[in-house]
Design brief:
Length: about 260
């Protein structure tokens, strides 16, 4: 179980969550994507209409619904989503006064049949209670880093939060990987950021680098992952490579 997190918005968390989840499913892994961002972009990006979702991750966190009843199939075989709606915006506050507020997601997921090879969690752009729930449930954190100005800003805060959760709530949690996103090979800036990140996270940075590509930003409005929308595009090729590396790193059997 992997939480995609970076408290900065717009760095490619959701794009990576959707397209990594989809390529893993295409590569034979039964995959669940949990949308933990009230914006619900992972939900709509996979073709679900948020206005018709009646049971979402919100009801699951508040124990008003069973997780099995909230998980939905997508147009990709082997890819499932636990959708988010705007209701989730309230959860950050509503959870505060509740018993076991940090472990709600972990408890709910434990009740899921052991039916998935991989579970990815798309976190909101904050380090609040929703992200803490993701960190408490997950085995590792995957950090997307945008190859842009200030890429490394805020990372020490993120790492400190991971450490706090490791010390207090989930001793299994570790930083499992860093993915470079929106890389533009024509700019010195992208190259500089990439090499800085590789210096900093030598062991955990994935070799696959996600290029800046218009096709990747267009795919969500068609409700499709890039693998279905334009499988020969550079973005699709990059996410496929990322998926292969992910499978290798985690010792998952190829073809599920
Ligand atoms: N590799 C990419 N190339 C071009 N646009 C991208 C790429 N990755 C993300 N985007 C676009 O950038 C914006 C922010 O990406 P998103 O994945 O939603 O970030 P986050 O979830 O971190 O806020 C979105 O409009 C998305 O379509
Ligand atoms: Mg997002």
């Amino acid at each position: 179980m992997v939480a995609l997190a970076n408290q900065k918005g717009g760095v490619g968390k959701t794009t990576t969550a959707i397209n990594l989840a989809a390529t893993l499913a295409f590569q034979g892994q039964r995959t669940l994507l949990i949308d933990l961002d009230p914006q619900g972009n992972a939900t709509s990006g996979l073709g679900l209409d948020r206005s018709t979702v009646d049971t979402s991750v919100y009801e699951v966190l508040l124990k008003e619904a069973e997780v099995e009843d909230a998980v939905e199939a997508t147009s990709v075989r082997d890819l499932f989503v636990l959708p988010a709606t705007i209701d989730l915006a309230g959860a950050e506050i509503e959870l505060v006064s509740l018993f076991s507020r940090e472990t709600r997601l972990r408890t709910a997921i434990a009740e899921l049949d052991q039916g998935f090879d991989v579970i990815l969690i798309d976190c909101p752009p904050s380090l609040g209670l929703l992200t803490v729930n993701a960190f408490t449930a997950a085995d590792e954190v995957l950090i997307p880093i945008q190859c842009e100005y200030y890429a490394l800003e805020g990372l020490s805060q993120l790492l400190r939060n991971v450490q706090l959760v490791t010390q207090n709530l989930n001793s299994d949690l570790k930083v499992g990987g860093v993915v470079l996103t929106m890389y533009d090979g024509r700019t010195k800036l992208s190259k500089d950021v990439a090499s800085q990140v590789r210096d900093h996270f030598a062991d955990s940075t994935y070799r696959a680098v996600i290029p800046r590509s218009v096709r990747l930003s267009e795919a969500p409005s068609y409700g499709e992952p890039i693998e279905a929308f334009d499988p020969m595009s550079r973005g699709a090729i990059a996410y496929r490579q990322l998926g292969r590396e992910f499978i290798e790193r985690h010792g998952l059997s190829k073809g599920g």
